[in-house]
Structure formats: C-alpha cells, structure tokens
Automatic annotation (TrEMBL):
Record carries keyword Signal: no
InterPro entries listed in its UniProt record: EF-hand-dom_pair, EF_Hand_1_Ca_BS, EF_hand_dom, S100/CaBP7/8-like_CS
Designated name of the protein: Protein S100-A16-like
GO CC aspect terms: extracellular space; perinuclear region of cytoplasm
Protein encoded by which gene: LOC107673711
Keyword terms of this UniProt record: Calcium, Metal-binding
SUPFAM superfamilies: EF-hand
Entry's Gene Ontology molecular function annotations: calcium ion binding; calcium-dependent protein binding
Domain called EF-hand: residue spans: 80-115
UniProt entry tagged with the keyword Metal-binding: yes
C-alpha cells in the first residue's frame, strides 16, 4: 500500500509551489514597474516645472510658492507659511536673480530625495531586530 497523500503534504507542497511562482512573477514585474515608475517620476519632475513656469525659463515667487504648496506639501514642512517658502526660494536662488531656474529647482528635488532616503534608512534601522 502506497503512502497516502495527506492534507498536510499537499498543503506544504502547495505553499512551496506558490512561493516559486511568486518569486518568478515578482522579479519580472517588479523590474518592469521600477523602470516605468522611475521614468514617470522624472517626467513628472520636468513637466511640473515646465507647466509652473508657463513658457518662461524660471519660476517667479508666486509660481514657485504654488508649485511647492500643491506638489510638495506632503514631504516638505512649512509650505503653508509664505515666509518659509520665500526663505526656501532665496536659498535655492544661486545666481540671485529672484527666480528659480530649472537647475536651482533640481537642488530642491535632490535635497528632498536625499532626506527621504535618510528617513527610510532611519526607519528600517529602527524597525530592525
Ligand atoms: Ca535664480
């Protein structure tokens, strides 16, 4: 008499099978998503600047404030305060022409990306065993 199949056996094999399937599926779709998300993010950064600048090369005070408040309010503190936004603009304005060029705007994007990655590193360190 052969060994009877048990629910437990089937269950453990099923789990293994699904795990393999899951791994194969994740690696492929994850990579695809990663590329498209990143491209999308870069396009968004560029398009937001261009639409805020309305054909001009740089953002004036009001356009900059609008951009920061509508697009970055969730990751950037003090966007409600117009004086804080003005200070931020002064800090970004490298050539001191009173406007924020694309290059100067990228400094802000880089700063935000950097602080996000630091937050992630801190939270994963705190959540570790
Ligand atoms: Ca400038």
């Amino acid at each position: 008499m052969g060994k009877k199949a048990t629910w437990e056996d089937w269950n453990s094999q099923k789990a293994l099978y699904w795990l393999k399937l899951e791994e194969a599926r994740i690696s492929r779709s994850f990579l695809t998503k990663l590329v498209t998300n990143m491209e999308g993010a870069i396009k968004t950064v560029v398009m937001q600047f261009l639409s805020s600048a309305r054909g001009k090369e740089s953002l004036g005070g009001k356009s900059f404030q609008k951009l920061v408040q509508s697009q970055l309010g969730n990751i950037l503190g003090d966007t409600d305060s117009s004086s804080a936004v003005k200070d931020m603009m002064k800090g970004l304005d490298d050539n001191q022409d009173g406007k924020v060029s694309f290059q100067e705007y990228l400094t802000l994007v880089g700063y935000l990306a950097n602080s996000l990655s630091e937050q992630k590193a801190q939270s994963s360190a705190a959540g570790g065993p």
